[in-house]
Amino acid sequence: MSKAIIQIKGLNKWFGRLHVLREVNLEVAAGEKLVIVGPSGSGKSTLIRCINRLEEFQQGEVVVDGIPLSSAKNLEAVRREVGMVFQQFNLFPHMTVLHNVTLAPCKVRGWSLEKAERKAQELLERVGIADQARKYPAQLSGGQQQRVAIARALAMEPKIMLFDEPTSALDPEMVGEVLDVMRGLAESGMTMLVVTHEMGFARDVADRVIVMDQGQILEQASPEVIFQNPAHERTRVFLQRVL
Ligand code: ADP
Ligand code: MG
């Protein structure tokens, strides 16, 4: 097995007195696709947000591509390696699609506008919305906005992509177009951690499914095992609700 690109050891996090991550241990290999499932409130978002330090944690170690997330200095470096896509696209409403995609590479990577725009056009083509580059987010459908959000994250050339319920806010007819973009990204070899209830996607794309429950990893296995023969009754109950 190749060396883990993400190493999480003994991770504990509290919100006030609420213990939301309990002794989480997880290693992710470069190129691996993980799907994270579990009931609402089980800590899925918090776990992936700890990987780019959108959340602080009180105990444990998170190392991303060899960079420990312990000092503020490393934080910058890690954020460059890790892209994130949220449920609510979080695009800048007052900027065009193109500007949304070029902003971070210009600011953080110091690219010229010309270079950033060339790259952005390529990415917008890749996610199937090259013709929307001059529009504003509000002029786009939810599915298109989420594809812009994916292009924006990819513009930083991350090694890892985190997705937090990327299709949960979409009308049903737009879910497929976003999942297709994510499938394409998976085929390109990207390391991906995806929180989703889209079990078809999990079945097709995941190397491993992580089941979270009450701040812990309840079990983890291939999609086949999780869907057909889970070790825990609670996994079975959860899957019956979402399938
Ligand atoms: P999931 O993504 O699995 O639904 P979360 O990681 O969002 O779960 O939340 C885990 C627990 O932490 C929940 O009990 C939630 O209410 C709590 N929580 C999440 N964010 C905050 C916050 N900013 N402040 C206080 N509690 C929070
Ligand atoms: Mg969540």
UniProtKB/TrEMBL annotation:
<dbReference type="InterPro" id="IPR030679">
    <property type="entry name" value="ABC_ATPase_HisP-typ"/>
</dbReference>
<keyword id="KW-0813">Transport</keyword>
<dbReference type="InterPro" id="IPR027417">
    <property type="entry name" value="P-loop_NTPase"/>
</dbReference>
<keyword id="KW-0547">Nucleotide-binding</keyword>
<dbReference type="GO" id="GO:0016887">
    <property type="term" value="F:ATP hydrolysis activity"/>
</dbReference>
<dbReference type="InterPro" id="IPR017871">
    <property type="entry name" value="ABC_transporter-like_CS"/>
</dbReference>
<comment type="similarity">
    <text>Belongs to the ABC transporter superfamily.</text>
</comment>
<dbReference type="InterPro" id="IPR003593">
    <property type="entry name" value="AAA+_ATPase"/>
</dbReference>
<dbReference type="GO" id="GO:0005524">
    <property type="term" value="F:ATP binding"/>
</dbReference>
<dbReference type="Pfam" id="PF00005">
    <property type="entry name" value="ABC_tran"/>
</dbReference>
<dbReference type="InterPro" id="IPR003439">
    <property type="entry name" value="ABC_transporter-like_ATP-bd"/>
</dbReference>
<keyword id="KW-0067">ATP-binding</keyword>
<protein>
    <submittedName>
        <fullName>Glutamine transport ATP-binding protein GlnQ</fullName>
    </submittedName>
</protein>
<dbReference type="GO" id="GO:0015424">
    <property type="term" value="F:ABC-type amino acid transporter activity"/>
</dbReference>
<feature type="domain" description="ABC transporter">
    <location>
        <begin position="6"/>
        <end position="239"/>
    </location>
</feature>
<dbReference type="InterPro" id="IPR050086">
    <property type="entry name" value="MetN_ABC_transporter-like"/>
</dbReference>
